[in-house]
């Protein structure tokens, strides 16, 4: 059943990643999550230690490849798992864990070029921080985007600097804008990450972050709920009562509000997230991914609203 949304050929009322890739490449495209073994400036002491308070020891790469293996070996191992669910299709090599521009250019080149050489790879997705984009890296990214479908993913999470300090992000919103604008000026596709339910934030703050990012017109966005993993600083904060987790209905309402704020052309890469089941402290409802996505669909249908209904220039 078509929803009537211009960037949809099914019941979705928002611009899904799957729709975008099928239109661009004409077939199923799978992300292959890889771990290049890099670190972060808020882990190694350059800007801080401990990393973001919600980050697992794998640097948000819990479902990525084994960093002890080569890029080629990781890629093939993850592909094998993916093909247990799907047959055929093309691939985007996704450098997911930690900060994937936080290394000398020759090291980045070795990793990224190895991934591009794997059969069926049509693109690169590179997760990083906006304050880790020096001139040499930007020059290399500019070269890459001429040869492949390139997306640079920037972990912002919130536009509020007080929240950034609370989560140990170790860079400001002004620094984010500097990096974001440097990418955009070179025509490099960007994806911005936002997290709902961060400590100290209420709904209006979450909507303000979404509205502010929407006005930037990024190529893609990722939004998901805060979840607590074992062996993270956030786990201690949660267990001591220092933060609470969103309920499912509360989260669905926030996401529906946020989707209405983004321009219809902005691709929504994800609307939910979870951690490895063995490490997840909560919210446990986040493990039921399709239930969450179905609830978002039903809420938009109930409202008779679509992505972009409240977009503001």
Describe this structure in words.
The chain is α/β, with parallel strands linked by helices and 313 residues long. The chain contains 10 helices and 9 strands. The strands form 2 sheets. It has a 7-stranded parallel sheet, with helices on both faces. A two-stranded antiparallel ribbon has the order 7-9. The mean pLDDT is 92.
Task: Summarize it.
With 313 residues, this protein is α/β, with parallel strands linked by helices. Helix content is 35%, strand content 17%.
Basic shape: globular
Number of helices: 10
Distance between the terminal alpha carbons, to the nearest Å?
A: 31 Å
Major β-sheet strand ordering: 1-2-3-4-5-6-8
Which class do the helix and strand fractions yield? Answer: alpha/beta
Topology order in helix (H) and strand (E) letters: HEHEHEHEHHEHEEHHEEH
**Residue share in helix:** 25-40%
List key phrases describing it.
seven-stranded parallel beta sheet; two-stranded antiparallel sheet; 9 strands; alpha/beta; 313 residues; globular; single chain
Task: Annotate the secondary structure layout.
Elements: H1 17-25, E1 29-34, H2 71-82, E2 90-95, H3 105-116, E3 121-128, H4 135-145, E4 149-157, H5 161-166, H6 173-185, E5 189-196, H7 203-216, E6 220-225, E7 228-229, H8 233-239, H9 248-259, E8 267-270, E9 280-282, H10 289-303
């Amino acid at each position: 059943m078509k929803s009537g949304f211009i960037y949809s050929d099914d019941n979705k009322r928002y611009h899904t990643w799957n729709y975008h890739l099928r239109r661009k490449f004409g077939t199923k495209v799978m992300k292959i999550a890889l771990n290049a073994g890099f670190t972060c400036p808020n882990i190694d002491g350059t800007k801080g230690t401990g990393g973001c308070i919600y980050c697992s020891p794998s640097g948000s790469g819990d479902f990525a490849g084994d960093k002890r293996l080569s890029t080629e070996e990781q890629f093939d191992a993850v592909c094998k798992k993916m093909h247990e669910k799907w047959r055929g299709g093309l691939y985007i090599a996704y450098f997911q864990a930690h900060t994937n521009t936080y290394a000398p250019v020759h090291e980045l080149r070795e990793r990224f070029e190895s991934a591009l050489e794997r059969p069926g790879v049509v693109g690169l997705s590179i997760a990083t921080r906006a304050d880790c984009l020096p001139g040499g890296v930007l020059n290399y990214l500019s070269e890459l985007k001429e040869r492949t479908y390139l997306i640079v993913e920037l972990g912002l999470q919130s536009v509020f600097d007080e929240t950034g300090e609370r989560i140990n992000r170790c860079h400001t919103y002004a620094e984010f804008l500097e990096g974001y604008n440097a990418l955009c000026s070179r025509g490099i596709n960007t994806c911005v990450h936002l997290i709902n339910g961060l400590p100290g934030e209420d709904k209006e703050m979450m909507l303000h972050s979404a509205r502010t990012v929407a006005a930037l017109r990024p190529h893609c966005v990722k939004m998901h709920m805060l979840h607590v993993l074992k062996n993270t600083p956030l786990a201690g904060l949660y267990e001591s009562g220092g933060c609470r987790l969103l309920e499912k209905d509360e989260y669905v309402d926030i996401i529906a509000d946020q989707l209405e704020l983004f321009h219809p052309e902005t691709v929504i890469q994800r609307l939910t997230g979870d951690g490895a089941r063995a490490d997840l402290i909560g919210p446990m409802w986040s493990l039921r991914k399709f239930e969450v996505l179905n609830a978002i669909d039903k809420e938009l249908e109930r409202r008779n609203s679509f992505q972009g209904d409240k977009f503001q220039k």
